[in-house]
Amino acid sequence: MAFITISGFPSSGKSTRTQQIKAHLEAKIKNPEYSGPLKQVIVLSDDSLGISRTAYDDSRAEKPARGTLFTTLQRQMNADTVLIVDSLNYIKGFRYQMYCAAREMKLRMCTVYVVATPELCHQWNLTRPDDGKYSDKTLNGLIMRYEEPSSMVRWDSPLFTVLWTEGGVPGDQIWDAITEGNVKPPNASTLQSVKAPSDALHCLEQTTTSIVSAVMTESQGFGGPVALSVTPSLQLQINLPSRHITLSELQRYKRQFITIHKKAITLGSTEKGAVDWSEESVAHKFVTFLEEHLKA
């Protein structure tokens, strides 16, 4: 139900802040007064995935490392989980990719920007164990390429900035963001389109042909409402203009209508939500289409 992105320079104290956030959120979840859906806090990091600091030495090694992180976080997203991604997350395009994945799962989100000066990052990097250090060249390169989060863009907001001079994190504000914040709907491009039934094209062709035949039979050129007997079980009414309507004219409108709706059959929908492909729905739509175009 919740997704937290940690971002900052390498060796800026992100893991320390992550543990502070984790402890605060776990205390909130265990509070007897809390009865919400959240049950656990999971931290996903380079260390937990076995990603070496040397993976950031060159772009060829870094790309699969990010792929491993992204694949794993998708598997860990659950309705009862607060997922904290403790990694560099220094590329705004990657943060956007994670944001889209979280939106698709309808999770509440926030970003925590851990700030430290480059000088401090170099000092703290030296205190790490040898297998946890960045080389000076890699560290400088990552700092130079870092794309700072911004509260002005949707994938980084709400944004909480934690300076190196601060002893703690804004735990209550983060808690409010992941439990009371707006759940953003998935992007339309990520939604699976609803497939049309296999007989949709046949229904479209047969129903429109029946209506054209019924209009030609019932039309007397006087105009006004005319009852149509499309099938024994389907009776409709159409408002016709006070003029003679030709078969070629009706056939032309029929072809236009079918062409428009063939796209919906191929892609799944031309509207928000599923398209109703029943005989009655198609008939009503075609009658409406004819009324609008025969006025001209």
UniProtKB/TrEMBL annotation:
Pfam families: KTI12. Transmembrane segments: none annotated. GO terms for molecular function: ATP binding. Keywords: ATP-binding, Nucleotide-binding. The keyword Kinase does not apply. The keyword Thylakoid does not apply. InterPro entries: KTI12/PSTK (IPR013641), P-loop_NTPase (IPR027417). PANTHER family: PTHR12435. Belongs to the KTI12 family. This is Chromatin associated protein KTI12. It comes from Pleurotus ostreatus (Oyster mushroom).
